[in-house]
Amino acid sequence: MKAHEAAGTARQAREAEKHGTVGAVALDQAGHLAAATSTGGYTNKPEGRVGDSPIIGAGTYARDGVCAVSGTGKGELFIRHVLGHEIASRIAYLGESLETAANHLIAHDLQPYQVGAGLVAVDAAGHVSAPFNTDGMYRGWVTVDGEFFVATHQQVVPVR
């Protein structure tokens, strides 16, 4: 990324060159929801930058009875939009499905900024959503019935 910055080509850098986030969400047998996000932040970040991962409600958020969310992307925008909390609020107050609420944030609210973003989320019923606006995003999940799924791009593959 330092070479990209020096050459003035940082905007053309691949997503994999910019950051590497690992996010996890879970719904346990008792109905409790949890979220975790581990990130080094984006590469070549300004000194002293604090991203969205440690700010509950932004890149990481869980509310029992509603949903759990872990996001990856431009943290400053996740903080401004309080991404995780906003998804939970759209579900709780507008009655939206997890899929609708998560897609709204990724495809609509963040669209004007033209930044790569994605998330993984699970709701209180065990529905999973993992929208992204980049070429791909590594993700996987297990359903309440014990079915495993993995994906890197648009196609989702069941694991047998």
Describe this structure in words.
The protein is built from five helices and nine strands, in the order ααββββαααβββββ. It is α+β, with helices and mostly antiparallel strands and 160 residues long. The chain has one domain (2-131): 4-Layer Sandwich (Glutamine Phosphoribosylpyrophosphate, subunit 1, domain 1). The strands form three sheets. The protein has a four-stranded antiparallel β-sheet. Strands 7-8-9 form a three-stranded antiparallel β-sheet, with no helix packed on it. A two-stranded antiparallel ribbon has the order 1-2. Helix 4 (83-94) packs across helix 5. The model has no long low-confidence stretch (mean pLDDT 88).
CATH superfamily: (Glycosyl)asparaginase
CATH topology: Glutamine Phosphoribosylpyrophosphate, subunit 1, domain 1
N to C succession of SSEs = HHEEEEHHHEEEEE
Number of strands: 9
Q: So what's the CATH class?
A: Alpha Beta
User: What are the segments in which pLDDT stays under 50 over at least 5 consecutive residues?
Assistant: none
Helix amount: 25-40%
In percent, how much strand structure appears in the residues? Answer: 25-35%
Tell me the Rg in angstroms.
16 Å
CATH architecture: 4-Layer Sandwich
**Total DSSP helices:** 5
Strand order of the largest sheet: 3-4-5-6
